[in-house]
Every structure is written in structure tokens, then in C-alpha cells.
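DM from R.C. (forwarded with permission)

"hey, sorry to bug you on a friday — could you get me a structure for this? deadline for the figure draft is monday and I only need the backbone to look sensible"
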Amino acid sequence: MSNWKNVNNWHWVNKNCLKWAQNYFTEHLVGLEAERNGNKASITKMVECTGDVDLNQRKGKIITIYDVVLKLEWAGKVGTLADGTEVTGTIHVPEIAHDTDSDDYVFEIAINDDSNAKQAIKEVVRKGLTPLMIKEFEKLSGAMIKENCEDVYIESDKMGAPTPPRLATTKENSSSTKFGTGSSAAATAETPAKKVNTTSLTETTEFQTSAHELYETLTDIQRAQVWTRGPVKLSKEAGSKFEFFGGNVSGEMLELVPDKKIVQTWRLRSWPAGHFSKVTLEFDQGSDCVTLKMHQTGIPVGEEELTRTNWSGYYWRAIKGSFGFGANF
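My reply, with the result:
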């Protein structure tokens, strides 16, 4: 009998590992301690760990994708305080991501009931504790794979006879609601468009893959559900409608030339009622990468920077991170 989860490890499989990450940070960060010049500090509690933590399997390749916010409590003692009064505070890490370099982590350190006499302990936290925390951050990817791999990858000796592939289904998560849409005003595609002053946008992005793989990633419903992290409506037929990110992005496929070009209408839900832009994606295959040229016309004036940010973050960075087309691991 075939293993129903993923025959031959072909399908894109995703596991939400946020709960696991919360336990990991609690186990590996709480209890860390440091001492400098007679002053001591240690992490006492994990207060918050929120964001996205996912383990993906793509054609047998295991990929970790995460972006979380962390808040911890610490306690210590300043050696110069005669009464031995304990000093407490918090450490806020606004971003721990799979592509963050060790030098780029930001630590916001605060002291409760601050006073000049207690300032010395900040150096213990900053120069003693935070380097220890970074070491644990750098182990996260390997630990995630080691402890969760069996849920997304099947060893060959455990495979059975193949069965027909099944469409992937994914629970809708926060990515569907946090996609940048500017104002909160909603509009439907059927509403007649009003006259809108528009501008255009052109971007060129490189992906460490082939034109065929990138084309499939942008047009295949199973792959799109991975990089958008939620349900989508998508078809490879010209004239078909599509919806991403819970309907915050929608449009129609106008022209599809496999591995060469995609032309589509495209709109954000918050744009003026019934107004669509036009997006042309052209693929240029190089010797070791593919260059994607995106030209978009009909963007409402004032929306160009938000639109650029959405393409960069929710499309290009998400695709690179989900499939290893240029992400750092």
C-alpha cells in the first residue's frame, strides 16, 4: 500500500512548526546566563514567540522557512549594589528569520525600574547573553529538520506502490490576511471602474532556478499554495481568474507562454472599485539562473511603493524562501 502523505517525495509538503519553535526557544534560551565584571544576568522566561515557522519538502529537499518575533524576561544582580537588589528586564527580538545574518539581529534591551546604578548590567545582557542567544538561533534550522523531518519526508524503504497524486490542501493562515493592501476599503472585480490616474512599475529579479521551474511556481496551484501559505484560486488556462492571499490579490490570466511569458490583469482589493492593472512577466533563461522582468501598468498613483513592496515581500522573497531559488539557509 502506498504512503498517502507524499508518493516519492514529489509533492510540496508543509508543516507548521510554530508550536515546536516556542518549545525550542523555551528549552534552549531560558536558563542562559552570563557574567561580566562581577555583574550577572540570566534569561528567566519566554514571554512571546509569534510569527511563521514552516518546514517544507520540495522534491526530496528539506527547506526551513521562519520569521518570528521573540520577547523574553531576564534577571540579574549588579555587583556594586550593596543591598544586592535584583535587577529585572526584558529582551525584545523583532525578527528571527531564516535569512537573517548573525550580525543583523536586533536586541531591544529594557530594565525595569531603571536607575543609573543598574545600567552596568545592560552590558552583561548585550555583550554576554545576546551572543549566546544568537548561537541558539543558528541551530534552529538544523534542529527543526532533525525533529520534524519525518512528517514531510518519507524514506524510500517506507514507500509503497504509487497512487494517483492528490491536490494539496492547506489551512488558511495569517499570510492571507496580512498581505499589504493599503487602505481598508474593499472593492469587487465586478464593480464598474472609475477614472483613475495611474503610473507604472518595472522590476528585474534573479532566481537560482530554471525558467521552467519558475513558470510552474507562478502558475501551478499546488506550488502557489506553498509560497502564498494559504488556499488560492489558479489555473493555467488563458481567460481564467485567480485569487491569492484570501482574495486580497485577484485578476485574470490573459496570455500564457510556457517558460517564456505571463500576462495578467492584477489588482489589490483596496484599489478603486473595478480598477485593474496589467502585469507582464517575461522569463530570460541564463546559464545558471533565470531573470524575471516584471512590467506593470495601471497602478493607481500613490500605490506604487506599496505595490513594489508587496511584489518584493509576498511574491519574490516568499518564492525564493519556499523553494530555495535564492534564499539563504
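R.C.: lifesaver. The CA atoms of residues 25 and 319 lie 27 Å apart.
me: no worries. The first helix runs from residue 18 to 29.
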